[in-house]
Amino acid sequence: MYKIAVAGTGYVGLVAGVCFAEMGHQVTCVDIDEDKVKVMKSGVSPIFEEGLEELMQKNYTAGRIEYTTNYQDAYKDADAVFLGVGTPEKEDGSADLSYIATVARQVAESVESDCLVVVKSTVPVGTNDKVEQFIQDFLINEVNVEVASNPEFLAQGSAVHDTLYAERIIIGTETEWAEELLKEIYKPFNLPIVSVNRRSAEMIKYASNDFLALKISYMNDIANLCELVGADIKDVAEGMSYDERIGSKFLNAGIGFGGSCFPKDTQALDYLAKQNGYELKTVKAAIDVNKIQKISLYKKASKRLITFNGLKVAVLGLTFKPGTDDLRESPSLDNVPLLLDQGADVYAYDPVGAENFAKFYPEGPNRRGSITYVSNVEEALDDANVCFVFTEWGEIKAVTPEMYRGLMRTPLVYDGRNIYDIQEMKKAKVEYHSIGREPGR
Ligand code: NAD
Question: Given this model, what pLDDT does residue 441 score?
């Protein structure tokens, strides 16, 4: 059992903390957000992740996890401090490392015994070297503090599962002491560990994320061509998936990638390359394709309709993917303002994302149109002139062609997730547009 502190209780930090506690370690989760800490202390998860709240309560009751804003107490005698604070994108595309720097300084000023600082946040190659130097510069007590890289690969929506059953744990260290300690901490998970140096570990994270982003953009690019030449991207993807070199995952074409990782991690790697005098053409292409893809359905619908002004527009799904209440870089955030600017009356449904969305677009008149948040699919579709599907939540997938036909004033559907059967929609006389599936001939 090790004494672990985790800085930041977002998707990465909180899930890591809870899973370390589940594995028997003594964990203190630190956040600067007092409200969040209060909520967590009451046994409630501040984020929506399946299974998280149950594990929080179980380990809190067992006395293995606590939550605090008092970082000094948490860091002073921790064996390891894991950093899970944000590294958002700055305007120039580079990663904002100010949160990392703040925690590094807090650790340096608090530690009273030897400590391993483990950076879980996604940071540009070379950052861990700088963090170690930074800590040395501010260290108050004469103790040994080293820094290790341990990038996180969880996906929102399945974060707890992805942590407990990770496909691999990447650890990047520069000394045997750091490597052995991290291996010991992860021992109870019984998962494959890949041990490399710090810079390689940092690069593995970006290279993995950007490869996935590239795969999505590649399929979207091919999908757009499919539409023009009369091929069906779903059939194309299925045919491709049998090739083990390609694999069957991440072949779904759609409205583009969002979330807190792919958009910023593609930008950050592109920036890192430029800083080093190199042009990362493939990653740049993934970024460019995604920008176009996110508003491709809106453009299609704009061509079909004279105007959105005064139309009731049903929006099904707001989050960037199902299983999360996270809206960061969600395609809905690109499309809804365009619709509102055109004077649309948007009726939006999302099982968990509406509250967060309303922080950007409060209910009522907005821009030239208006937005109303409804509590079920039926209310959104009722008497609607057009419908956009942005997220493939189960209840949205379950909408039948007959429901679109029966509930909408005009059964006109733009599906950004390719979740419905074209023939069934046709049979029900629903005008259905999706991505990469309409024959162009
Ligand atoms: P998040 O924004 O959800 O959470 C960050 C938390 O850190 C917030 O609660 C914030 O209040 C807290 N914080 C800020 N400064 C602090 C300080 N000085 N001390 C303690 N807490 C502080 O972030 P996230 O989505 O969990 O991402 C964290 C990092 O992990 C990022 O680098 C991200 O790229 C990476 N990552 C994210 C995911 C994901 O799916 N979200 C997956 C893998 C990696």
Answer: 41
Is 261 annotated in the active site?
A: yes
Structure tokens at 352: 């968990």
**For ligand 1, is residue 8 a contact (CB within 6 Å)?**
yes
Say which CATH number the domain at 334 has.
Answer: 3.40.50.720
Same domain, 376 and 310: yes
- pLDDT score for 439: 58
Low-confidence ranges of the chain (pLDDT < 50): 440-441
Q: Does residue 32 sit in the same domain as residue 176?
A: yes
What is the predicted pLDDT for the residue at 295? 97
Q: In what order do the strands lie in the sheet with 431-433?
A: 364-366, 369-373, 345-349, 312-316, 386-389, 412-415, 431-433
pLDDT at 438: 73
Residues 43, 27 contacting (CB under 8 angstroms): no
The encoded tokens of residue 117 equal 């600082």
Whether residue 384 lies inside any domain: the answer is: yes
Q: Tell me the CA–centroid distance for residue 325 and ligand 1, in Å.
A: 15
What type of residue is 117?
V
Whether residues 180 and 229 fall in one domain: no
* Same-domain status, 128 and 145: yes
440 within domain boundaries: no
ipTM of the assembly?
0.98
370 in the same domain as 231: no
CB 347 within 8 A of CB 316: no
Atom of ligand 1 nearest to the CA of 209: 43
pLDDT tens track for 247-287: 999 999 999 999 989 999 999 999 999 999 999 999 999 99
Q: Look at the chain and report how many structural domains it folds into.
A: 3
CA distance 85 to 7: 6
Structural domain boundaries, residue 84: 3-196
User: Going by CA atoms, what residue is nearest to atom 34 of ligand 1?
Assistant: 122
Same domain, 74 and 191: yes
Give residue 440's pLDDT.
Answer: 46
Residues 311 and 407 in one domain: yes
How far does the centroid of ligand 1 lie from the alpha carbon of residue 362, in Å? 26
The ligand 1 atom nearest the CA atom of 12: 26
